[in-house]
# Entry
Amino acid sequence: MSLSNESALMDSLNPDHPPLIETPAPRVWKFWGTALWGIAIFAAMFVGQIGAIVYLVWVARDPIDLASLQHVGGEPASLAFSVTMGLPATLAAVWLAIRIKKASFVDYLALYWPSWKQLLFGAVGLILIVVAWETMSRSLGREATPGFMTDLLKSGRDKDAALMLLFAFSVAAPMSEEVLARGFLYRGWSASFLRVPGAIILSSLLWTVVHLQYDLYFLAEVFSIGLWFGYMRYRSNSLWLTIVLHALNNLTAVVLTMWLGS
# Structure
């Protein structure tokens, strides 16, 4: 045995001089890989939602055409089912993308539970943002909630679909959107040339695009909330934190609109 090999062996047995171990680079999709997979994941979410409506049309034995899809999809219970079915489709696509990289699903998405201090800080910041937009809306004489959402939620309440809508908008939608935006997109883009600030801004912009059913005013509000969620994702290294914040925001909006006012 050579002196160098003998020295290395002695170091490996010495607790004061542990052997040097190279840490493998994390297996992460970078900018373009994350972007392309992001499109695929969004498409999977869309297919899951549309597939749910097609299934309901088929069960009702209606012709599977645009008119039937619009008619069935306009019902509150059907829409709630559609939004809910987007979640498993999203999770499956994200799991596949991460699996190909042979990375840990939990580590890749930072599925770690935050501390109560982080949860409180995130909630207080979210409340301040929402209250600021609410105050601005009232000063401008604007509605605090888009009219079509108010009509949908109240219709769901009257048609006994309140709990389905509550689950869809307060659980399924926040999980789907956060796994895509602050989970998969943020993780890959923050490890690319965009770094953390660019990843927060770009993922927030794309999350805003998902809400194009709103007007520019409400889109600006969505974008500002997205920036806060992105910052909290970075600050806490916890996707569960942004999922909970997103769920609380939607839950409050749904309950206030559906039962306590317009």
